[in-house]
Specification:
Elements (H helix, E strand, L loop, with lengths): L6 E4 L4 H9 L5 E2 L14 H16 L6 E12 L3 E3 L5 H11 L3 E12 L5 E12 L4 H11 L28 E5 L2 H5 L3 H11 L1
């Protein structure tokens, strides 16, 4: 864990980001961001930064004490440009998982940190390549029914299929054949990236 002197605030309602920060020993407060997250049809680093930095700046400008505010946003990119957001309903979740079946896609997370007094800020991106095996309709439908992944970009959570310890040898029934890069980035928050950012902002 990177030692930080200033109070840490997470501008996110994501239970996965909360769990990751807590697991790695960080003490933090959660302050809801009122920034209206934009939905984009195609990927660009500027677009994903707009969301992560917008969330962090909204909170940083509303609090009265000095703190490091953290905002994040995750995008799933298929075939280089097609962006898979959070599905609107069951049918769209099915469509997304069918689209990912048998293919490689990229998961990009943007993390932004902001000093609430100076508004000095930093944004970094982490990319992980994820490879899905071929999926049949029944297992896609059963997964969506059992896990209800409508709050996840791309309609899935990697933790539903493999743990961090199984990355090099995924279970045979896993949707995921392999990943290249940071596992926690696919969950939604790269601790490695975050800790490097804290060092750079100080």
């Amino acid at each position: 864990m990177e030692c930080i002197e200033k109070k840490l605030i997470l501008a996110s309602n994501s239970p996965r980001r909360r769990e990751i920060l807590a697991r790695y020993g960080y003490e933090f407060e959660i302050v809801k961001s009122f920034y209206r997250e934009e939905k984009f049809e195609t990927f660009s680093y500027e677009n994903i930064k707009k969301n992560s930095l917008g969330k962090a700046l909204d909170v940083a400008q509303r609090i009265q004490h000095e703190a490091i505010v953290v905002g994040a946003d995750t995008m799933v990119i298929l075939d280089s440009v097609c962006l898979l957001n959070k599905p609107r309903d069951f049918s769209e979740a099915i469509f997304m998982l069918k689209s990912l079946s048998g293919k490689e896609h990229k998961v990009v997370t943007s993390i932004s940190i902001v000093n609430s007094i100076t508004l000095e800020n930093l944004t970094e991106f982490t990319t992980t390549n994820v490879y899905f095996r071929n999926l049949n309709d029944n297992e896609i439908i059963e997964y969506i029914k059992s896990k209800n992944p409508l709050d996840k970009a791309g309609s899935y959570g990697i933790q539903d299929f493999i743990s961090e310890q199984e990355v090099l040898n995924p279970p045979k029934n896993s949707f995921i054949e392999k990943i290249e890069g940071d596992y926690l980035n696919v969950v939604g928050f790269s601790i490695k990236t975050f800790e490097n950012m804290l060092k750079a902002l100080h």
